[in-house]
Amino acid sequence: MQYELKTQVIENQRHTFDHIAAIFGDRPATRYQEGSVDIQPKENFHYAPMWAPQAQLYGDDFSAFVLSDPNAFLDPRQYYYAPYVANRAEAYDSFKTSLDYIEDRDLLGRLPQDWKDVVSEVVIPMRHYESGAQLILTAAARFSNGSALAQCLSYAGFDRTGNAQVISRIGIALGGGTADQLATAKTTWLEDDALQPLREHMEKTICVDDWGVGLVTLYVLDEMLYDVLYVHLEDKAVTGGAPAYSLAMQHLAGWLAEQRTWIEKLFATWREDPQTGAKNTELLASTVEEALAKAEIALRPVAEKIDRLLDAGAGEALDAKAEQLRAAHVVPTTA
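The chain above was modelled as a monomer; its predicted structure follows.
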């Protein structure tokens, strides 16, 4: 008896969920698409928000920045929970390796005194800045419209808690394994004259009702503060006899570079919207311009304090970053 073997291919009746097929077509979808896009509830809510009866739980009522299609924005990093957690675990392991190297050799304790003062009096108090940023991003995640965007905002909020912990670990290392530096940093954040304009600006931004305006305001503040502390000073440290500063701060500089990719993609999506793009473009320019004016007032005393302690050209770096942001988002480009 002879047997003939044949391969029979059974075609899938459908390739993905109906709501994903309606957006991307009936074809195999990525895990990011299936786990991130168009998954927020749209109807059959148990009750409307009693604290905002004119609004829907998910809608365009909470920001002047509006997308005609909330699903138009997608995370360029393609993060859903699993790759996000894996990436952040790897990043923290990298930071821990650097910190272990620093602690084993007491490199922070052996920093020149002026660099040690900058870490103690400026950098470590920024753990409280990160906590404020976490509140802003968490609120934005709650009130934004579009599950892919809310996911980015949520992860960014988690990141700010992680950044605060990174700074805390640096403070503990500088304090010889004690929390003394953290306690001092809290007092500095609350009482140091040079930090009060920044603290005031952060607290007012937390209270902004429009989540989009709050996000843009935080973006501008992050770009300027991080550029001075973790890019400009990191570069100065390499040539200024403070390599431990560079080793400790590189994680935060790298984090901002990645964070920037999805925020600027969101800005581009706002500008390119077929129905609301012109309004969004005008609003983004005016919001960035206002945010720049406030950030310069808030950060000028910080830069001046750094230059008093270290004379590292922090004021010039702040001005250069402000002009870069103004050229990118406020001044119209010509073809």
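The mean pLDDT is 93.
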